[in-house]
Design brief:
Elements (H helix, E strand, L loop, with lengths): L2 H6 L2 E16 L3 E5 L12 E7 L6 E7 L4 E7 L3 H9 L10 E2 L5 E7 L2 E16 L10
Antiparallel strand pairs: 1-8, 2-3, 3-4, 4-5, 6-7, 7-8
Length: 141
Amino acid sequence: MDPVKCDSLSIMTKSVTGVCVSFDYPHPLYEGQEIDNPVTSKTGLLELYRILPKSISMPDFIFRWDHNENSVNVDIHGVTDAERDLFKKEKCGFRGHKTIRQDDGSYRFCIVIPSGTIAQGTIRLIANFGLRISDQMYAGD
């Protein structure tokens, strides 16, 4: 998100606390990495968690907050633009960009690439919202 669009949002998640990821299936060649003190950047990026490969030749995955949908999305990195687009559209063996919100407020994820399942599980968090209040004055006749 660009800084201008970010500034135009009246309600935005400013930070999250209590990020907890539990795995039903973790790929043995990947490991999870917590984000210390996740806060929203000036461009609106709010990273929540990372799944990193033990080999640099494999893609990594970043869980982030989607301010427009108030949900968790997963982005793939270390791939071509075409593969990134396939992951986002969930085509050709790629899946996992969107998480599924559960009744308890957690989000289910299942990350798959053509070579197999990378991770499956649940992410829980507490979103801390901020409200932007602006005041305008008009001068006129």
